[in-house]
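Need tokens for this chain, all 326 residues.
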Amino acid sequence: MTQAVPMVEIWRGDFLESAHSGHAVICDDTGQIVEAWGDPEAIVLPRSSAKMIQALPLITSGAAKAASLTSEHLALACASHNGAAIHTTRVEGWLETRGLSDEALRCGPQMPDDRPAREAIICAHESPCQIHNNCSGKHAGFLTLAQHLGAGPEYVDADHPVQKACLDAFERTTGESSPGFGIDGCSAPNFATSLTGMARAMAHFAAAPTDSAEAQLHQAMRKHPDLVAGEKRSCTELMRAMDGKVAIKTGAEAFFIAILPEQKLGVALKIVDGTTRASECAIAAILAKLGVLEPDHPATRKRMNAPITNRRDIQTGWIRPSAALA
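Here are the structure tokens for all 326 residues:
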């Protein structure tokens, strides 16, 4: 099958009101497909779901060890965070230890999603800075690597040594030559691959030895789910629901990955219309299907088989997986 398949349904009463289609692949530690939906060879931009791959050179180069980075730093390097104080104070401190400030970042300013942080900025009649950007941890990692390599400050340029190292890591883990890249929301190149390539990369992470760079990164994510995203976010809540046994990461335009170390499996998922509610429901359904996420856990029920209510808190329908994911 080469067409996207219906994965998520929106029901209003007895009527199927909307449907979201997508592609998904599960790979094992040999890189082979265990199960697939839609087109496994669809070319995708994994967006922020690729952050742990982009963080690999930070460790393999020796930069992380030289900078005495902790598991918190590594989790932030993989994060799309809310801009809450737990995120921004750590990123700011990270930059200070490198003799750097907000001005060194190239991710751009972003109003934080964290409500207290956002309201504090508004009430103070101030503007957000780049540290508030959800990708500031990844960029702190880029800067740390650039310093270690003795490279220049424009680390988001595609021909910069940092991005060349990221491309090398990307092609090595996906097992494919990337056909190109797009510029991500944070200004860094985002390399393309097939959906199978991305699932293969996640399986590579899942099966990596415990002392490897790959394992250090997914262990950091699983240890610090609050740093990877933030309160009320799907990545944080679902990783907690799985007791830190699985690492998951969302990406813009409805991308999602999962790293299952105990099963040595990797998952990659793309909803073609770019709707986040659908990717969250679909990844929850796949994780439940794999037996690592309880279907009735409150965090699961917020996203899968979840009631839809109106402004009077009257239930009007459901968001639920399609038959293909059952």
